[in-house]
TrEMBL record:
UniProt organism field: Extremus antarcticus
Protein's recorded name: CENP-V/GFA domain-containing protein
Family (UniProt): Belongs to the Gfa family.
Keywords recorded for this protein, A-Z: Lyase, Metal-binding, Zinc
CENP-V/GFA domain location: 17-127
Keyword Zinc: yes
Annotated GO MF terms: carbon-sulfur lyase activity; metal ion binding
Any Pfam family the entry gives: GFA
InterPro entries assigned: CENP-V/GFA, Mss4-like_sf
Amino acid sequence: MAPHFPLGGDGYSNDKEATATCYCGTVQIAFVHCRKITASMFASNFIVNDSALKHNRGQDKLTEFSQSKTIDTGNTMTNFFCSMCGTLMYRRSTGFPGKSIPRIGTIDDFNLQETKFKPRVEQFTKDRVSWLKGGEGVEQAKGNFYDSRK
């Protein structure tokens, strides 16, 4: 399937890496192909090793916000968002040292969102609203999927 970039820009994907860009284009990160605070009831994320995440541009335009009050585990979650447009690019948790958690929706190649980055796990299903059904073929976890595997 050929890459599909619905917005103009310089995002890319190839056999080695792909990019994720904020809404205004100020911040762009790249990550190697691997297993990658919305105003929404859920978010689609992926996990990447920090060593496999690079900032193509705009790292100096990222603003950080950290807190632990609303995180069930008590871990501190730090959000990294574009200071120009507010797009949340990724998060880091003290519960996952050495890992970043970017948003699938920021990936520039929409075909990757539909294929390689299709969700495989849904967490916190105990909190899902009744009118929203789980993803077909997606593993379900009532709480934190990754804590339950330790």
